Amino acid sequence: MNDTDPKTVYRYDTGGSGFKKAALFLLILAGLMAVFAIYWLTPFLGA
């Protein structure tokens, strides 16, 4: 089997568990960035 074949990637990710972990990680990261943005913008909005 050719290693550059894109179909070989899906063999190791049955059920999309890797995608769910990546999506959860990105959502947590986005939430942390939103909290940091609010913390960073609050002094500018209050002034």
Question: What proportion of the residues form beta strands (DSSP E)?
Answer: under 5%
Shape: rod-shaped
- Averaging pLDDT over every residue, what do you get? 81
The main β sheet shows up as: none
- N-to-C series of helices and strands: HH
Query: In which range does the helix fraction lie?
Result: over 70%
Number of strands: 0
Structural class designation = mainly alpha
Taking the alpha carbons of the first and last residues, their distance comes to 63 Å
Nearest-angstrom radius of gyration?
Answer: 19 Å
Query: How many H/I helices?
Result: 2
Poorly predicted segments? none
Number of domains: 1
Q: What does this entry look like structurally?
A:
With 47 residues, the chain is mainly α. It has one domain (7-46). It is built from 2 helices and no strands. The protein has helices spanning 7-10, 17-46. The longest helix has 30 residues, at 17-46. It is rod-shaped and about 55 Å long. The relative contact order is 0.08.
SSE map:
Blueprint: H1 7-10, H2 17-46
What descriptive keywords fit this protein?
47 residues; 2 helices; single chain; mainly alpha
Briefly summarize what is shown:
The chain is mainly α and 47 residues long.
